[in-house]
């Protein structure tokens, strides 16, 4: 895995009050999947966004072939769903926790007018890819000077000062977080008063489901994902001082569309990733959109 020194934060923002941190200590499976294996390049995540997608905007899916363009649109639409919770966002600063290649950061910048946008990721390879993919914007091309920054850092210890951003969002990254309480505290710290948090990913529905999921889905068994329980996670946000925590299940617009796409791809149709639909239909997990305010 490539090594990179940690950042102290974007220009104009003080770093973490405890000083610079060492490079994030990644679980071995996370390090490999997002480093050597580069998950964004596999067919299941066409377009490089690395999420299961929100398929409601694609219309009726039954009886038609889903294309790669449909898959990319579903991934973009999941970002649009999350970013749309901020309302009129133009000119407001934003942080994405778990930004990957930074495609969602650019979407936030260009479609929603969030500005500036900071992309934070714990994997140095992902930060390097994001910087390479968006080099022109980072260099000031297309009016991008100072509007986009990518920072290496962990969600449980963000290298930013207090009251730094108006909006904090995360799209399908929280399932990797080992320390949700620390993430919640950091979110409350870096958001400005009145700032908004929005995140989406899949959660176990109950503690019993969290115990069962590793037997069905290998990412829970091999250390890639953590089966956080939705009610416990929402309580953690509230316990960190965030208010107006709202939990919205959106699995009806995620799992069936994703499974239909997988079923139509010869190289994907028989793999274990199709068990996510099984886990949803049997009540073990669901996909959720959570919002809160500082």
UniProtKB/TrEMBL annotation:
Disordered: region residues: 1-27
GO BP term (any one): methylation
The record, for InterPro entries, names: Diverse_substrate_MTase, Methyltransf_11, SAM-dependent_MTases_sf
GO-annotated molecular function: methyltransferase activity
**Limits of the Methyltransferase type domain:** 95-198
**Pfam hit, one:** Methyltransf_11
Which keywords does this Swiss-Prot/TrEMBL entry list? Methyltransferase, Transferase
Q: Where are the transmembrane segments?
A: none
Q: Give the compositionally biased regions (Low complexity).
A: 9-24
Family of this protein = Belongs to the methyltransferase superfamily.
What is this protein's record name?
Answer: Class I SAM-dependent methyltransferase
| Lineage, top ranks | Bacteria, Bacillati, Actinomycetota, Actinomycetes, Kitasatosporales
């Amino acid at each position: 895995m490539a090594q990179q020194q940690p950042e102290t934060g974007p220009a104009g923002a003080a770093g973490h009050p405890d000083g610079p941190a060492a490079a994030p200590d990644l679980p071995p499976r996370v390090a490999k999947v997002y480093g050597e294996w580069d998950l964004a390049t596999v067919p299941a995540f066409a377009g490089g966004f690395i999420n299961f997608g929100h398929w409601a905007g694609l219309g009726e899916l039954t009886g038609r072939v889903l294309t790669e363009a449909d898959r990319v649109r579903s991934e973009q639409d999941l970002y649009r769903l999350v970013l749309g919770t901020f309302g009129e966002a133009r000119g407001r600063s934003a942080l994405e926790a778990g930004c990957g290649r930074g495609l969602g950061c650019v979407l936030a910048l260009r479609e929603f007018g969030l500005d500036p946008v900071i992309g934070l990721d714990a994997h140095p390879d992902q930060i390097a890819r994001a910087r390479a993919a968006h080099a022109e914007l980072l260099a000031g091309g297309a009016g991008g000077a100072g509007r986009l920054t990518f920072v290496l850092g962990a969600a449980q210890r963000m290298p930013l000062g207090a009251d730094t951003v108006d909006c904090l969002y995360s799209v399908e990254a929280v399932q990797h977080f080992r320390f949700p309480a620390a993430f919640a505290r950091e979110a409350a710290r870096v958001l400005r008063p009145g700032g908004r948090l929005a995140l989406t990913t899949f959660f176990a529905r109950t503690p019993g489901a969290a115990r069962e999921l590793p037997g069905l889905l290998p990412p829970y068994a091999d250390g890639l994902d953590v089966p956080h329980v939705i009610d416990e996670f929402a309580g953690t946000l509230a316990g960190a001082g965030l208010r107006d925590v709202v939990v919205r299940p959106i699995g009806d617009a995620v799992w069936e569309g994703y499974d239909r796409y997988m079923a139509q791809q010869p190289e994907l149709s028989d793999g274990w990733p199709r068990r996510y639909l099984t886990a949803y239909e049997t009540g073990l997990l669901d996909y959720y959109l959570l919002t809160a305010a500082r």
